[in-house]
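Session log. Operator J.P. requested a structure for one protein chain; no other inputs attached. Running the standard single-chain path with token output.
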Amino acid sequence: MSGVKTAKIQLTPQWQQTLSDYVTAVAWAPGGSWSAVATAAGEVMLFSLEGEATSLPDQSGQAINRLGFAAASEYCAWVGQAGELLVWDIRAAEVCLRQSHGSAWIDTLAWHPTLPVLAYGVGSILYVWDVKEQQAIAELDFAASSVLHLDWHPTGDRLAASGHGGVKVWQTDDWQAQPTLIAVPGASLFCAWSADGRYLGSGNLDRTLTVAEWDSPPPWLMQGFPGKVRQLAWSTPNRATGSPLVAAACVEGITVWERGDKPKAGWQSQVLQHHQERVNAIAFQPDSFMLASAGQDGRIALWREGRKLDQSLKAFPSGVSCLAWSPAGDRLLAGGNAGEIKQWQVAPRAQGFG
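Structure written below.
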């Protein structure tokens, strides 16, 4: 994968629609044939590649904070302000699982990478469910705080959770064992495994980024950010050095880090500046080093090799709230602050493959 290049790309608009409120989340089905969109008004919509929309029922009218698809694309789940987890069976076209938690505001959800198993957090409690078997697998207590973010290891044998004091990692073969703690100053707001499972990154409240190489302590602590690190993203391929790029979003800037090629080498950074207001989302194109960023300034920026501004699109007048690449990297979907949804297609010559 180290020979992967990032070609200049051209995005062609495919379709655009407008929903009733702020778009809170977008997600692609792993198979790439569907996408899902949620809003602050409680709407949950499925979209085909051509933009044909299906509105899912049981909408509460309250904000949806997170949604996602199971590994085989057969289920779509969402959580939000109503304090409920709902799972939609796409083949049967019905809600197949509903878990209510009173007045709790639920904003964390993550599907297992290969199984119909999902995890979500309610306050400090982390629930793990087997959706196909309609069976609870585990109920875990983060203890130190509410669970702020979740991410499964690419092999599915570990689950990481962010919160006060750091990231806790549970092993799936023994849920009751004491979790491993990757300690951070203050609180971890966002955790993410690298695609090869080698690294675990944490964006932190105290203006730092922590990167741990699993089974190789201690972690690196990157400092100097102007504000809290709200989101991070890993490139799918590795660089020639053997490690992926990691990008971190903070206020209106993005910092991209690359590890050196020596066994004990540290990480070198480059700051990407273009957005005039807060960066709301970042994502690397699959199998590429092309980085997309979405800003409160209404722009989507594309960064070639994760370093150089390739192009900037004025996507939505009132701001871009979220974005996601399709699994094949041939489409880009984005949501806006005023309910706009837009999908672009990547020119075949420029899908990021060298």
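Operator note: Residues 15-141 form a domain with the Methylamine Dehydrogenase; Chain H fold (CATH 2.130.10.10).
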